[in-house]
Amino acid sequence: MKMKTLAAMALAGAMSAAPAMADLVIPDLSYRTGPYAAGGTPFSDGYQDYFNLLNARDGGIGGEAIRIVECETGYNTEKGVECYESTKGEGALIYQPLSTGITYQIIPKATVDEIPIHTMGYGRTSAANGEVFNWVFNYPANYWDAASVMVNYLLEENGGDLSGKKIALVYHNSAYGKEPIRTLEELSAMHGFELSQLAVDHPGQEQKSQWLQIRRERPDYVLMWGWGVMNQVAVQEAANIGFPMENFIGNWWAGAEHDVTPAGAGADGYKSLNMNRIDASLPVFAEIQSLVHDAGNAAGDGSNMGSVLYTRGMYAAMLAAEAIAKAQEIHGVSDVTAAMVRDGMANLEITEARMAELGMSQIGPEFSVSCENHGGSGLGIVQQWNAADAQWVALTDYIAPDDSVIDPLIAADSAAFAAENNIEPGCL
Amino acid sequence: MLYREAGDFKTTYVADNQTFPLKLDRIGFWVTMAVAWLVIPFVINDYWASSLLVPFLIYAIAAIGLNILTGYCGQVSLGTGGFMAVGAYACYKLMTSFPDVNIMIHIVLAGGITAMVGAAFGLPSLRIKGFYLAVATLAAQFFLVWLFNKVSWFYNYSASGQISAPERLVAGVAVTGPSTPAWAQYLICLFFVTVCAVIARNLTRGTIGRSWMAIRDMDIAAEIIGVNPLKAKLTAFAVSSFFVGIAGALFFAVYLGAVEVGEAFGIQKSFLVLFMIIIGGLGSIFGSFAGAAFLVLLPVALKWLGVDVMGWPTDLVAHFQLVIVGALIMFFLIKEPHGLAQLWRLAKEKLRLWPFPY
Fold first, then answer.
1. Which residues in B203-241 are b (16+ Cβ under 10 Å) and which e?
2. What is the pTM of this model?
3. So what's the ipTM on this one?
4. Hey, are the CB atoms on A32 and B314 less than 8 Å from each other?
5. How far apart are the CA of B179 and the nearest CA of chain A, in angstroms?
6. Top-tier CATH class for A143-278+380-407
7. pLDDT recorded at residue A251
């Protein structure tokens, strides 16, 4: 009798320890703690809920069940490395770390381990050059696109002329925040606006001096590359100094509900970019509600559904799932490997018809990926916060970046990386 | 019974002064070394190397360095993160400027550069002490991080401000860069840990170490009996920074491969290393290892227990981790203010008497 229980326990232990190898393993390097948790939590909820929906509705992707392995990084690179190392052995198919710092960290490692990374609208911009970064993808848009979209929007606002205008960039003093500087410098030389740079140190709660400087210099526009608690503080500080909010534009990581609600009515009129549309009435949300949340499988507390970053997390999951489906189609097997998923990503094509079929019509732009171009279309929309109704209102349709500025920059930066690391550019 | 001096005869002064006077200790030391050098490299995998052993070894070097300054010489420093950054950036500049020179030499040189910077920031210690010195070293911390963020020469003008280690070989095997095998990563750290620990141990029981301890225990008295405070304090800063610089260079080049100064070498790092030596035991080489092990391995163990074994949500485990580590720190400081090293010392005292305590 006792032997039997022991054997059963050992068996149960062995089963829980050794995962069924047929699963599609998706690591979720999330952060639900620390100063960036406000952004990390809804993204991760959306990411997991979508995969859970696929499991509940379709039995996974192509009949293969999906297994999510969550690992808490706290937006910290050391923990990110630990998470990467602890999850890669489980047969991870794709990494989406939602952190530019961790992305820089794992790009070389994942390239050696041959696991694709998808950094949607973050990470290393020059990874758009697929011939150098074979294993890294950053479709549908990257930071340099965002900088260019912002400037194009401002050009449109000002009748095509920005000469003599003063634009300040408030940025997170890290690899993430420094990414757009090179593009903005280029654009400032091209369009004749004056660019001033104001760095905010991690985690971003101290911004008094930066905003004092803005108050003194009175720039015409303030652009922001912020994340986590920095966004809330910046919006509050801008409201405190009475900066006209409609001239304050954040990038797509500085434009979620939780960034503006703490400032209350003062945040009204604040603008930000977005790479996906927000529409709480999308059919996919109803499906998640009935098949995932009502079944008690919601990730987190289930309160974030439909918010900006939840939607983006779900969008990221959808792009990953579509890439896996594409890989299954290309290779004719359902139990794909990481290398096959890379092929799926390199041949991914997202059409409006497909998005509508998935119940998320118009959520993102149509784009296609190729072996050379991992960057997608680079489109972004400008949205504005309406504090009275507590919602983001899209002001524009998708705005295209100025590829004539960005493409040479990407070519130069990726060539430098290739030279540094002895990479012979070419398709796999 | 087994653990005692009796029967272990010393016939020379050298034998009498050895680090481990008891035979069992010597055996234990050599067994540990044998396991570390001859067994672990053959069984190590990527996860064990990059999540546990490599950070443990690197933090142990940093903790030894800070322990020399704070534990042996009594100068409180909050600049460890900044000095690690000096080591990392020095190593990066050397690696990229002189790609043909062996990385081992670069790491030692990075330590040397950090020693000079550390000695320069140690100058105020001649005038100020205690909390005031802590604030002065805090200034070093913030100044150095600011410097490496501001001056783009230090990161070779890269757009992101990140530095990333190119691949470098030692005896034909990559020790930096992504294709480094786990055992090579581990062995290079183990090599530096072993050398640093032996140097530190022998420095601290020689003339120079005694002058540090004299300054720590009472600087005026030390000065009266002929210890030169200028020399003692500055050598403590230099030697300490040398070790911390080596730790920073390894942290960047071997462990992470790419760092961002504000995040990797911020004030948190200074506190982390300070906690290591406080928990491990001030003024003890063993304590540096124990403290590093405690603060590196415990969070990973708790995470493994909570997430992989118990299946709890990751955020809950991350929060619990903070609570448990914090509670354990308080518990140890109340129960044993002299750290884990003192517990070890007491255990050894008891063992000597066992099984016939009087």
1. bbeeebbebbbbbbeebeebeeeebebeebbbbbbbbbb
2. 0.91
3. 0.87
4. yes
5. 6
6. alpha beta
7. 94
